[in-house]
Amino acid sequence: MSSSEPNPDSNVSLVAEIERLRRRLEREQSARREAERIAEDATRSSIEDPLTGLANRTLLAANLENELTRAARYDRDVALFYLDLDRFKLINDTYGHDAGDELLRGVADALRATTRASDTIGRLGGDEFMVIVSDIAEPDALRLAGRIADAVESTTPKSTGGIGCRASIGVAMLRGRTDLDPTDFVRQADTAMYAAKQAGAEVRLFDDDLLAESDEKRDLRRALPHAISDDKLVVHHQPIVDLSSYRVIGFEALTRWRQPDGTLLMPGMFIPTAEENGLIGEVGKLVARKAAQDLVVWQRRHHDTDAIVAINALPRELDRPGYANRVTFAAEEAGLHPNNLIVEVAETAIMEAGRVAADNLRALRSVGIRVAIDDFGTDFSSINRLRSNAFDVLKIGRSFVANVADRSDDRAVITAIVALADVFDVKVVAEGIETEAQLDTVTELGCHAAQGRLFAMAAPIDEVAGPLDFV
Asked: 215 with 415: CB under 8 angstroms?
């Protein structure tokens, strides 16, 4: 073979080298694509809610700060919507977490369909969502909130039996302010949302009235932990009177917050703050302990070991594992027999009670602590619970008692409640008695006991009535 002819071996080697380099390049490209995919997934997971695909808290915070900066630069308004799903926990507990997740994804889709592509939609966690909308006037923002409410309520997955949630929506408007911190802006929308929820409304706009409330709540939020630790929460007792003998058979324990000037703050002013702050468990534990201790003092003073004391349990307390154990311990620590303690639960809370709450109620009754349904008749959702003998006392609220002497429909409702209680061997207590006419009517209709201002206001245990004060 002459030197000018190609060497077959060198050609083979060249082809092999090219193939080796090609495979290496492919591996490197594949590795680069995989690295990019991993980086993209990591970036997405850091800013995206994995369940709904919406923005998470991190991205919401960043976008809100950017929107506020642009609003200040270009003089345009921003609306912030804070959504909380009513009764989501009930649906989640009843139909399971998979059904709850499907409902949350459906709500996310409803929000996407209702808003613009330029708006930021995010999930804060649980059943709370947020929407950031720029360059929008207040009337348009309120109309959008209404459309969002309708879209959420129309979300009814098959897995929940066609049952959906209603949203409570708080709306905060920037209104040209350049000094508003993003955290304060979110707090405004959150405050408006809670106001909507408490009023039973779908939408509430943050305004000057809520601004004053917000400042007051901020002060309460800061002071409440110190009030608990410094023993500034006191317990007053309102007598419960047997209507056949007019003897005092017990008390309802009601908490008050003693202020530095000696005035008392009523529970409606600070209990919602305790719930928002996660302090409701501490408040409830304090009330249970003091109520039990006070009743033991009263029993010994008046030689009446049959007297009872009733404490109120809020939904967030009942939903905490171990609530029944804490109440039982409070009675044991005070030396109070469990039969002398009653836990009152609002009928609306019974309707929303999940598995943990139901377990707590069963545990209370298993040790002898009785359970009462408060404000019974406002929503007859708990009749099925009566059939299972889950309660011992029904308390008729002021809404039926206030006009019972004059309105036949209120008398008919109370008559029906008393008849229902007789069937299940449950006692009936009429609350809010303020006049002799009300007292005479509820006695005639068959109520077993009553309480209200006609007998006595709630007072410290040293000042309350004795067993025979109303006989």
From this structure: no
